[in-house]
Write a structure and sequence with these properties.
By secondary structure, the protein is mainly alpha-helical. The chain has 5 helices and no strands. The mean pLDDT is 88. Keywords: Membrane, Transmembrane, Transmembrane helix.
């Protein structure tokens, strides 16, 4: 028999789950936009070490965002079904989520910002992906704070 979900924990993680799904949706849109230029980027990477590094960095930063958001969703499903005596596990999962999301936001922000990604005329989808990735960095930051708040709420609930 499956354990029944903890209602207070479910209430705590529901806003996080909703916002995380929204961030995942944005991430998918950004990746789809970037894939539009994948063939050209790979061709340029064959001839330029700088282009190859930027292509690899684009892929790695997008993957870091998806991984951190997937971990957040996974935790949203796991926390409510943990037994009531697993308070320490709940707190640790909330803390780990905050850390993972903060690291992903920081990692992505080093690459996806207006200083390193310039807007290029006639490549609207790329420019939209840059703007979307910058928004995703902000969302990762908010989710980091949200998981910290969930950890505090779970500690208070005992």
């Amino acid at each position: 028999m499956a354990p029944s979900p903890s209602i207070p924990t479910l209430i705590c993680v529901l806003p996080i789950a909703t916002y995380t799904f929204h961030a995942l949706s944005l991430s998918k849109q950004n990746i789809d936009r970037l894939l539009t230029y994948e063939r050209e980027a790979e061709r340029a990477a064959q001839w330029s070490q700088t282009a190859a590094q930027r292509l690899r960095k684009s892929r790695m930063t997008q993957a870091a965002g998806v991984f951190s958001l997937a971990f957040s969703i996974f935790t949203c499903f796991i926390l409510p079904i943990l037994p009531p005596t697993a308070t320490m596990y709940r707190l640790c999962l909330a803390a780990v989520n905050s850390i993972v999301l903060a690291v992903a936001a920081l990692y992505k922000s080093w690459f996806w910002n207006e200083r390193t990604q310039v807007k290029i005329p006639l490549v609207g989808k790329f420019n939209a992906a840059v703007a979307g990735s910058e928004e995703e960095v902000r969302m990762l930051g908010w989710l980091c704070g949200g998981w910290a708040a969930v950890g505090c709420a779970l500690w208070w609930l005992g």
